Amino acid sequence: MASAQELNELNEKLSKLPFLNGYEVSQADKDAFKKFDGTPFQHAHLMRWYKQMKFEMGGDQKQEQKTPPAPVKPALECTSGSCHSKDVNFDILPAKGVQRDAKTGQMKEDPVYVAYRLKMFDELFSAQEERIAAMPKNPIKVTLPDGAVKEGTSWETTPLDIAKSISSGLANVVVCAKVNGQVWDLTRKLEGDCSIELLKFSDKEGKETYWHSSAHILGECMERYFGGALCYGPDIEDGFYYDMWMGNTTISSEADMPKLEKLYYQMMKEKQPFQRLNVTKQQLIDMFKHNPFKQRLIAEKNIGDTTVYKCGNLIDMCRGPHLPHTGKAKACKLYKTSATYWEGKADQESLQRVYGITFPDKKQLTEWVNFQEEAKKRDHRRIGTQQELWTFDPVSAGSCFWLPRGAVIYNRLQDFIRSEYRKRGFKEVVTPNIFNSELWKTSGHWQHYEDDMFTFKVEDDKWAMKPMNCPGHCVMFGSRLRSYKELPLRFADFGVLHRNELSGALSGLTRVRRFQQDDAHIFCAREQIEGEITAALDFFKFVYDTFGFTFELNLSTRPEKYLGEVADWDEAEGMLKNALNTFCSTNETKWELNPGDGAFYGPKIDIKILDALKRRHQLATIQLDFQLPQRFKLKFVRDNKEETPVMIHRAILGSIERCVAILTESFGGKWPFWLSPRQVRVVPIGKSQVPFAQSIANKLFDAGLEAEADPDCADTFNYRIRRAQLEQWNFILVVGDKELEAGTCAVRTRDAQQHGVLHVDFVVDELVRLHKNRALKAEHEFRGEKKEKPAAKEAKAEEK
User: Which segment of the chain is annotated as a signal peptide (predicted)?
Assistant: First the structure.
């Protein structure tokens, strides 16, 4: 075993070395590896080297597990006398050879810590129930959204009672309530006069509650099946997950997941009630003394008095709310397992994660499963590999390698936006990639964003790679005193940005470390805000219409913590509302208010698009910013007086990487003609037509299209046509002897639509027209004949 000093010295040495695939292992490495094998490392570079050595020396290639840290030793004084268990030593992991139930696979005996935790909860919950029973029971009025009033009793009537008084059918479908604007458990007793809204699974907060409760059920199943230490268990956009530390054990999709799902159904069948308990921080520390990860959360997040919830044998700290009981979850699918790291950091403990989803009925689950199958086919990571658009490599994790065909898409998106900049008065700029930390301190990002930036030293100063463009644009605006005649001044920038995303959070093109945005910042006077917002909305619509996307508009207003004066916020929000009203009345659409969700420096408009699978994605945003111009002391002169401009942050595509991922999945890899990296394939019937086919491809290529000839005549004609269709060439031009003589070609599409035999020059002009017009359905808009092609007949004859 190595001493602490040896570990520190080796970690320091390793921090200066790269660890790439193919790292050459020396004898010194092997000796060091044997010496340190089994040591619980707390050093990031040493841990990385250790994993590489395990792989290179052919050892266990499973993700290395670290021994969890010892739990924080709590002061074990509780209000309940039996909580003084000062010398309890829990085993988190089950013993080898533990006996299990034959059907569900759960351990026949729960981990030791479960009994301790349940005993403490039951005693505290009993005391809480006595306190509630002693509360005064007074008549209360409960006001429903339609204005109707129900009578109730304080500390006795629950939201579920109100639902039952309306109808038993309603009581069966509601999942939680909103009491005076706060989401509540259906079984939590009302404390006085209140307004109440009953929420179903279809409501946003209802779905969140439903899936958060489902995560707790999953946590109970994982404890019963694996033992281990539960970590995070949130609801997410598509269900829920739970992370667990399990030592060196990993979860098998084939052996464990089906049994875990059976156990889940058993927990639903038992209709275990969710019970809410208020606890002090001291009680919380003692209740989770067995779990070092929960102890960390308590310490790191500075949790004070809070609540815990119990369902079955599981007790977890949680603000709630939750379902009345586990039986409210009717249909379940545990659909994925993966490895992750504590807090997403690669130098922390390795955890096992299980994903799941639940629904109020089996029909919805079946629809979801079918939807997932379609989404899987459209996964941008799969399509990107199949179509050779991009690749990723550990040598630069989180940074995309754009292959030639992928670069076509990337550049065309930039060119699309760039072409509109000239029409809409934007001036494109180029800014540095690295800045002194003083810039970020001035902007305020350093104080809140330093951990998310790639930082390094230059001589004696700390520098960082830029994660956003706005401070650099402020520097450019402030390079000299501006006149009001220059406003609005619109800077656009495709600069490369870097954000230090955690390795565990990286995912294809949707979460990367290196990316580019169609970023723009508009500096304007206050009276110009409304006009600029209206113009920005028009720009958004033009771009999204080109992609065939529908979109939703949300206005996010002043949050609880904000900078500036209320009057300025009210004025700005009023301008945004006017711009939205003008835009929506012209375009026959609506916008929704998202109160309190604005940025701390100004209100914003969020635009969410709907893709082909009706999934919502936020690409665009418009944000008003009063703070950065003040921080950078930006000024313009009007009537011999200096004024501070307002800054508008604007992005349409947002991250181009993420936009490409969304477009890939929405189109399913069937790129619209103008964006396609494979626009035209020219297929000769025989070898004698290859030069003619190549000349047509050259004409198309010279006209700016992505065109290729297929010179491989070894395969059958039908096979080559099918191959071109599967490779998603939008148009397939076929040439035989007759076409060669007449200077024509037979035009067909990837979907087997035929446009007849046409002169090559006409075809080139027509395809160029469709490309320049960015036709969304160019294959259908092509102006040609619709009849069987002579080339097709000739091909059949030749094959015979």
Answer: none
